[in-house]
Amino acid sequence: MSHINTALIHQGRESATKSLSVNPPLVRASTTVFSDLSAFKASYSGKTFETARYGRTGTSTTFDFQSAMAAISHTESCIATSCGLSACTAVISAFASSKKKIILQRNIYGPVTTFAENELKKRGVHIEYFESTQELERIITPNTTLIFIEIPTSLTMKLLDVSAVANIASKHSIPLACDATWGTPLFFDAHQLGINITIHAVTKYINGHSDVMLGAITGTYAALEKVRIFSERHGNFAAPDSCWLALRGLRTLSVRLARHQENSLFVANFLQNQLQVKDVFFPALPTSPYYDLWRKQFSGAAGPFTIELVSCSEVQFENFINSLELFSLGTSWGGFESLVMPAIAHDLRGKYVLPNDNRLVRLHIGLEDKLDLCDDLANALNMLTDEKDI
Description:
Layout: H1 4-10, H2 14-19, H3 37-45, H4 60-72, E1 77-81, H5 84-94, E2 101-105, H6 110-120, E3 126-130, H7 133-139, E4 144-150, H8 162-171, E5 176-179, H9 184-187, E6 197-201, E7 215-219, H10 225-234, H11 240-250, H12 253-272, E8 277-281, H13 291-297, E9 304-309, H14 314-323, E10 327-329, E11 338-342, E12 359-364, H15 370-381
Parallel strand pairs: 2-3, 2-4, 4-5, 5-6, 10-11
Antiparallel strand pairs: 1-7, 6-7, 8-9, 9-12, 11-12
Helix pairs in contact: 4-11, 5-6, 5-10, 12-15
């Protein structure tokens, strides 16, 4: 299919055709039955996990979702997992072992760093971090088994030159994995840029309705071989119900992202002109230091970005957050609704008090009217000059 918009509608429909329905049916099963012993043996002889074998590894619903994700990602294969974090940790774990090194980009999704620091180091895995290609070149050693990046980084919205990183990884024959949730396959063609393994928190834009926890890992069969083995041994797979709901969301991904992009660019430009906003961290803005990289690597911009407010008291900051009416306070994003949260590290959210000169807020711009969103933000920004409790 020549265009991804067409693929979003028509890929992953094999079971629909067989059931004579317009959409793939939801198939729940713990047990797969076989016509004879040869069929039973054949199901265990393959390495793709894309045929019925046992409920844990999937039903036709799972396989339809996986085939659709592989198709729109311009690659061969996909593994569906229970959530985005499980997809990240499965990829990293598959390449981690004692005395081997995993290299992570700094400032990536907090739970991934927490996993590396608190789980992998206990197992004797060496963990190192980098921010630039020069630093990456310097820390690569013969025992490096994986490089893991996120585009853009969570909260800080930083971009790397992905092609440059991919060239370094290829030169050293090291697999490159990337959390590409923000751009989705629609705005970010990860595998075309040289990324071997791509992770998506399907929980976010691909599902799009804030009612599913699901992850997806895409790549060639060869690139995902170790991840498939790890997932099989650890039971790291998704429920068919989640895959069915994500297939529903996938069909409208293109039209939803177009509205998210329109709204987020409008709101980000509005916020740049507000006296109470010190900075807007959004690579799609021409004022961003990452704007040229964004244009080179992305075909569009998604809804989450971070803003820095002017210095204010804790009461003023709380009043700003609490006075928002159209932005719900929540930690996720990618649904149709707008969200807000303090942009602080995952492990500090329950106890951290931001210093007065560092008021970072992450916004997810939803599908509401963009003028209403700006009015809501303007009213909340006025709270930064009012000490009274709301």
